[in-house]
Amino acid sequence: MSGPDEAPSQAPRNWFRKPLRHAVNAFLAASTSIPRLALNIALPTLCVSCREPVAGEGVCASCWGKLSFIARPYCERLGIPFVYEPGPGLLSMEAIADPPAYTRARAAVRYDDVARTMVHALKYQDRTDLAPTMGRWMARAGQELLDNADALIPVPLHWKRSWSRRYNQSGTLAKIISRDTHVPVVPDALRRIRATEQQIGLSRSERARNVQGAFKVPPEKKSLVQGRRIVLVDDVLTSGATVDACARALLRAKAASVDVLVFARVVDSFKTPI
Ligand SMILES: [Zn+2]
User: Fold this and answer.
1) What DSSP element (H or E) covers 261?
2) Contact present, 228 and 255 (Cβ < 8 Å)
3) What's the gap in Å between 59 CA and the centre of ligand 1?
4) Are 119 and 199 within one domain?
5) Which of 29, 48, 105, 176 lies 20 to 30 angstroms, CA to CA, from 143?
6) Residue 37: pLDDT above 80?
């Protein structure tokens, strides 16, 4: 038992021990990273959703089966799936009642359990091995947007957030899409000039207010945007408020058009076309 009386006699000993402890910790950190590296090579990739070993793609066959890939029929404007084929070019109620600033939005999959796990793993767990698969699916879903596009612009993070997270997941996806389609990425054309609250838990109108005026094309980047057909790239589309605010900023900078391509979009239910 050590009491307050013993403190002075322990202080010099701790002073002596501290550098030693640091050295031991540094040695342990260095030595444990070697077997860990070997382990990373030896172990197969685990399915991001069910943790079963998987060859290559990051999602096992069973979890793949649970993903809902979005295909036609869908609203030509918002990309929301319809329950039946209404005929060419028909729009959803949402697209008519509350048209967005962007022209068209497309998503590879519905934002359900497996898709959510993939997005979170890419964003927060450094599972960048998922990006090639996700980007490839996006390139396929957004083919008609990409066929006529001049530039890909990832939705930017505020610099504070990109520092803490180290990289922008939308930028990673945009690079993959660019590699597959040869549409160039223009990474700094759009800037987040205001740190915004996380959109999670906010209502639709709160989300719109939260991101209003949060994005800007800096004057020195306007020439990269003016007259260009732009595809905005993001990981998830929820209410669409963020990409809408981005599209407004790009259109203010005289972009010819802005389309939106995301990995996953929230779909409340399959819609009946009007
Ligand atoms: Zn799985």
Assistant:
1) strand 257-265
2) yes
3) 5
4) yes
5) 48
6) no
Helix, strand, or coil here: 212?
coil
Distance 64 CA to ligand 1 centre (A): 7
Q: Tell me, in angstroms, the distance from the centre of ligand 1 to residue 134's CA.
A: 15
Whether the predicted model's global pTM rises above the 0.85 cut: no
Q: Are 98 and 116 in contact (CB under 8 A)?
A: no
Q: Are residues 30 and 101 in the same domain?
A: no
pLDDT, tens only, 3-31: 443 434 444 444 444 455 455 455 545 54
Q: What is the pLDDT of residue 127?
A: 87
160 C-alpha vs ligand 1 centroid, how far in Å? 34
15 lies in the same domain as 146: no
177 in a structural domain: yes
Give the separation between CA 102 and CA 124, rounded to whole angstroms.
Answer: 28
Q: Would 237 be classed as within a structural domain?
A: yes
Q: Cα(128) to centroid of ligand 1, in Å?
A: 17
More confident: 167 or 250: 250
Please report, for the domain that includes residue 185, its CATH number.
3.40.50.2020
- Regarding whether 153 and 224 lie in a shared domain, the answer is yes
3-state secondary structure 137-168: HHHHHCHHHHHCCCEEEECCCCHHHHHHHCCC
Query: Does residue 57 lie within any of the structural domains?
Result: no
Cα 129 to middle of ligand 1, angstroms? 15
Residue 216 resides in a domain: yes
Residue 71, pLDDT score:
93
Residue 218 CA, ligand 1 centroid: distance in Å: 43
Taking the C-alpha atoms of residue 271 and residue 274, their distance in angstroms, rounded to an integer, is 9
- Assess whether 92 and 196 both reside in one domain: yes
Q: Which domain holds residue 30?
A: 10-43
The Å distance, Cα 53 to ligand 1 centre, comes to: 8
In this structure, the answer to whether residues 24 and 144 fall within a common structural domain is no
Look at the chain and report how many structural domains it folds into.
2
